[in-house]
# Entry
Amino acid sequence: MSPANRDDFPPKTRQAIALRAGHRCSFPGCQQVTAGPSDESPEAVNMIGEAAHIHAAAPGGKRYLETMSREERADISNAIWLCATHARLVDRDEATFTADALRKMRSDHEARCTAEQRKAAATGATSSDLVAVGPDIIFVGEVQAIDAAGWSLYLRNFVEGDLGSLIKFIERFDRAAAFERYLLVSALGDGRVLADAPSIAKMGIGHIVRCRVLPGAARIRASDLPRDFAMSESHDLMLKGDNFATVSGLEALPQRVKSCLSLQQGESWFHPEAGTRLAEYYRLLRESPWFEQLFKLEVIRQAAIPYEDPATNRQYTPLQCVERVHGIEILGDAPTNNWLPIRVDLEIKGIGRWQHELSICIPVEPIRRPSLADLLAGPMQQ
# Structure
């Protein structure tokens, strides 16, 4: 079958379904670990897992469903993570392994992984946490050292990207955009701009990533937050007399957090690099503990990494007054009308530790917007 006729999963979807499965085969009783070090070289990885299609990727395949769109076939909802042996098995026996049976197999396995991960977190069974190096590399690791020379981290295994991606990031560091040169450490609730390219050294079955970093970005006091339009609990502008109501200073803090985290990357025509990846993470990892962990990492990025506003040539962190992210808790199973309730636990300049419940906008479906050129051209033709 020609690859052009197959609706294969994008790389990020393959990584996400493996992550949801804990990099273990979802087949009942198997639990085989599907990734590990290879003897070929210190950088090589032995991958024996597959993102298998529940409904086949191409006509003639098992459980092929003609009524599905190409996007639906390549969506994570049509994927199950299996070892190579069981991926072949389910593709030979369509009668036993129906689409419903495979969906239940995936659901049961992910539920076990979720329970194990939450139990480990509750008992403190692991000290490892998430680390991000630039926008395309996230790994499970832990802090080894922090000193005047920089931050050193032990890399256990990748969540997004791989060793090759990290090497490419190092090689192209001088050509990378300023907003891509950062380091985030969830365990610290903080991040830094990288002073130069990281270095990697082999250590046991993992690696040490050494990063020279710049001093922490400047923050303003919460009392100095600029004036903004006030929003109601129903997320609408409010009137005060004949004018729109406004808030500033400490009163503006909940709204600052809400508006910052609700802006998705790519939504702003004038600031396409601004915003979070929370909607992307939600679509790939909803109902998984990984979503909450990646959520915290994104809040750290908004708190610690300055964004350069091209309109004013000013640099500032999007959250402006947040000095540390202690924790993020998801309070709802799913967004209601695209609004997800959360609880934030933040260190705020000028007031100290601050906890607050609020809702942020996370579009469940990708937003399809007309281009700026379309808008300037006038009303779209039907």
